[in-house]
Amino acid sequence: MDKTSILHIVNTQPNKPSKEGFDAIVGARLKAARIRTIFERIDVANKIGVPKETIRNWERGLAVMPAAYWAPVCEMLYIDPWELLVGASRRSLMPDLPPHLRRQATTSIRSA
């Protein structure tokens, strides 16, 4: 290599979404998981001891769900925390949503 060669630096880091974008993506996944079930926002809020507005803010991406709530929320909604983070399912690790907890297709969906 001669001294006239120019070193080109390539950015090998993947583009990360902004914090606000990440919160909105995780929130949308959280809402989709809740809507698959029979649970309303108030049900999730009561289970973990927060106001239903907190659940709404998480679902809208206005606030991030603290790590302490991930396990109980994911367990209640039958979703793998990994699925909330990256959107890919590891279904072999989580049981399927029991039929009695599935929202019926004919039921109108309301956002508690």
> Could you say which overall geometry the principal axes of the C-alpha atoms support?
globular
| N-to-C order of helices and strands | HHHHH
Helix content: 40-55%
Report the CATH architecture. Orthogonal Bundle
Uncertain segments are none
Question: What is the CA-based Rg, rounded?
Answer: 19 Å
What structural class should be given to the helix and strand makeup?
A: mainly alpha
Strand content: under 5%
Task: Describe the sheet with the most strands.
Answer: none
Structure description:
By secondary structure, the protein is an all-alpha fold. Helix 1 packs across helix 3 and helix 2 crosses helix 3. It is globular and about 45 Å long. It has a single domain, classed as lambda repressor-like DNA-binding domains (434 Repressor (Amino-terminal Domain)), CATH 1.10.260.40. It has 5 helices and no strands. The chain starts with 18 loop residues before the first helix and ends in a 26-residue tail after the last helix.
